[in-house]
Design brief:
- The protein is α+β, with helices and mostly antiparallel strands.
- The chain folds into three domains: 16-307, Jelly Rolls, CATH 2.60.120.10; 328-409, no CATH class; 456-725, no CATH class.
- The protein is built from 22 helices and 21 strands.
- Helix 17 crosses helix 18.
- The termini are far apart.
Length: 729
């Protein structure tokens, strides 16, 4: 601070620090007292401005509103008001005709408590927010804007020094908002002008902690504090005539209202203006009409910003059950969904729609959008001449969208379902429709592809043998081309005695656990590939073929003599069968170096020759597809029914990383997916859900070892098989 002759003098120091801490939304502030010229200035530390900027701009999302509004601003040249943009206060002369002011003034005086405010504001806004001022505001915000609230204000001489608005302050609110005061009578008449400080002086007061303090701590005389802060600034005010207005940023410019002189009144209209993504006219008519009376800024964030801006941001697409369209982003979302992101066409459609209905009053839902599109196609396509490939494509895309929507809408509905009870998981506790999964046959469609006289065969795991046995017991035409009834042949099939009524399988290929074994079966039968003949001495007594599990030979000669006979028997079984059941067991296998797989886990003596492999879904699909394609080429009547064995692993080769139970779950899942892909890709392939019937729909399916199923459960599988595939007698 300097004296009149320019010499520096010591600044007065605060008398004392008030020991009062103010807590606002978790933020702690300290009030300090600075007494200058017998005036007490209470200053907050830290300055309140930082808190308010964060509160309104971030917490109440006005910063987001402003950024979104600027992004929506059309790319047009607007004359910039450089002075107003930097000083944040400006007088606008002759904004409203004097006659209009006199009429409103007369109405306010005649009806001080019963003024038709809504009618007046609708009448006045188009006259006030005309071209010049409209450009000024748009240039200031660099966006469109809306009128947040308005008030018809009467200032009297009763406004004394205790009135807080007569003390120097800034309005709490967003950093970027404006206030417009339109004078309805001359300031010379009442002398109740509003005074303003320059932004530099205002910033100094904010940084000192004075601005935005408690309203009761405001002071009418701010000169000593400005001098203390080394700010040379004098308040300014404008001489106003009826119809003149002043527009300013009340957050950035400190101001105070002077009381009217004795016996006089100031009549004025106040507008609060905020950035908006839409023009003030659109906001007024369609989104957020201005409210009467000073409003809390939290109201607009809770209403308009959340409803119209955040839901319209690029990061969030709001979809309600009625599929309403409230903004451009929602419109673009549905257009892209219908027309497969055809950018050029969608851009043209969007522009056309916004031209005829910029506020989405008519085209306000997906239903109305589709109706508009259909009408557009009807009117624009020349149906009597060349329709054009692009037009046909657009019509097709719309038709596919509607068809897909209709199909999706009915997926969980019982209409058209062969088994409506199979839509939802059975719930025995359901209050209205209790049901149980036990006893359910878990298939949705039947495929009556055979009778009991149809030649049928099977191959696969030990569960497949159980199926083969019951098929023979129930007098199906089960094809058997090879047995082991001649003891002189030196062949032993495990579980089969010479003369047994029921064969283990259609031929003596033994148990087949993995999908490569099925492929190899067809490759051998139809001489697609040459295989090495391995003869492994087992237990110093028998010889075994590692490709044929549970088939034993007493001598190597017996092995050699049987080999061609067995291949021909396999070939004949595949040629004779019109229906063939394969049961997939597991997706772990052991391979020789040439890539061929043995049918089960290795016996001692083979580990040196084999590698463990975990098959993928695609590898399993390819193996079964190869088996089917080879047989189908030679037997066009061949149909394949795929089942999945419910019997779990005996052991896993992945024990270092997987427990046998989790390895088994993985195996069944992989094979189940492979089965679905195969059935989907082939007309003559079908799935028999034996796995699901055993593991989900049977209360007590397991034998004592908890791995193999009971005979009663196998019979239930065959009953389901008949219900699915066998024609009624």
């Amino acid at each position: 601070m300097k004296t009149n002759n320019g010499a520096k003098m010591d600044k007065p120091k605060p008398i004392h620090q008030v020991d009062t801490r103010v807590e606002i939304d978790g933020q702690s502030f300290i009030k300090k007292l600075l007494r200058l010229d017998n005036i007490d200035y209470l200053l907050t530390e830290p300055p309140m401005k930082v808190f308010l900027e964060k509160q309104y701009d971030e917490l109440y999302k006005y910063q987001e509103l402003h950024a979104y509004s600027k992004g929506k601003m059309p790319q047009v040249d607007i004359p910039a008001d450089e002075v107003f943009n930097s000083e944040h206060v400006r007088k606008v002369a002759n904004l409203l005709p004097e006659l209009e002011c006199h009429q409103l003034l007369a109405d306010m005086q005649a009806k001080p408590d019963n003024l038709d405010e809504s009618a007046w504001i609708a009448r006045l806004l188009p006259q006030i927010l005309k071209s010049e001022l409209d450009n000024t505001i748009r240039s200031y915000f660099n966006s469109e804007y809306s009128v947040f609230w308005y008030t018809f204000h009467t200032l009297t001489d009763a406004m004394g020094p205790e009135e807080v608005s007569s003390r120097w302050h800034c309005d709490g609110g967003p950093t970027n908002h404006l206030k417009l005061i339109l004078y309805l009578n001359d300031s010379k008449e009442h002398q109740a002008n509003t005074q303003y400080l320059e932004k530099e002086a205002t910033d100094a007061l904010k940084n000192s902690g004075y601005i935005f303090g408690d309203i009761k701590d405001r002071q009418e005389d701010i000169a000593p504090l400005l001098e203390y802060l080394d700010v040379n600034s004098c308040p300014q005010q404008f001489e106003m005539k009826a119809g003149d207005a002043v527009i300013f940023n009340p957050f950035k410019v400190a101001h105070r209202g002077k009381p009217a002189i004795t016996g006089k009144k100031r009549y004025s209209l106040h507008l609060c203006i905020i950035p908006s993504p839409f023009t003030w006219q659109e906001m007024y008519k369609s989104y957020y009409p201005p409210k009467s009376g000073c409003q809390s800024f939290t109201m607009v964030t809770a209403d308009f910003i959340e409803k119209y801006c955040l839901s319209a941001s690029n990061e969030l697409i709001e979809i309600d059950q009625r599929h309403l369209i409230k903004n451009e982003n929602q419109l673009l979302f549905w257009l892209n969904t219908i027309f497969n992101n055809n950018e050029k066409y969608i851009k043209r459609l969007n522009e056309q729609i916004q031209q005829v209905d910029p506020n989405f009053k008519e085209i306000n839902s997906l239903t109305m959008l589709i109706k508009l599109l259909k009408g557009s196609f009807k009117d624009s396509i020349n149906w009597q001449a060349n329709m054009g490939a692009n037009n046909i494509q657009r019509v097709l895309e719309l038709a596919l969208f509607e068809e897909g929507t209709e199909s999706a809408r009915h997926l969980y509905q019982p209409h058209g379902k062969t088994k409506p009870s199979g839509i939802f998981w059975p719930d025995p506790t359901h209050p209205k429709y209790p049901s149980t999964k036990y006893g359910t046959e878990p298939f949705a469609q039947s495929h009556r592809i055979m009778s009991k006289d149809t030649p049928i065969g099977s191959a696969g795991s030990c569960f497949a043998f159980e199926i083969a046995k019951v098929l023979q017991q129930e007098d199906f035409n089960y094809v058997v081309t090879e047995r082991a009834d001649d003891p002189r042949a030196g062949i032993i099939v495990d579980g089969y005695k010479a003369g047994d009524k029921y064969a283990k399988f259609s031929a003596n290929y033994g148990i087949l656990f993995n999908t490569p074994s099925f492929k190899q079966l067809a490759e051998k039968a139809f001489q697609v590939k040459e295989f090495t003949k391995y003869s492994l001495l087992y237990s110093s007594t028998y010889y075994v073929d590692p490709y044929r599990e549970n088939v034993f030979f007493k001598t190597q000669k017996a092995f050699i003599n049987d080999y061609p006979k067995h291949i021909e028997a396999v070939r004949q079984s595949l040629l004779q069968c019109e229906v063939f059941i394969v049961t997939l067991g597991l997706n772990e296998c052991w391979q020789f170096r040439d890539g061929t797989a043995i049918s089960r886990n290795p016996k001692e003596g083979l580990y040196e020759l084999l590698q463990h492999k975990v098959l993928t879904v695609q590898e399993n699909v390819d193996n079964i597809q190869r088996f089917y394609d080879i047989v189908k080429q030679h037997n066009p009547k061949f149909k394949l029914i795929i089942s999945l064995s419910p019997i779990p692993f005996l052991a896993t080769g992945r024990a270092e990383t997987h427990h046998v139970i989790t390895a088994n779950s993985h195996s069944k899942a992989v094979l189940r997916v492979a089965a679905d892909e195969l059935v989907a890709n082939n007309e003559d392939m079908y799935y028999l859900p034996s796995y699901e019937l055993v593991t989900e729909c049977s209360e007590a399916p397991w034998g004592p070892d908890l791995r193999h199923v009971t005979s009663e459960t196998v019979k239930r599988v065959i009953t389901m098989f008949k219900h699915m595939f066998v024609k009624n007698d």
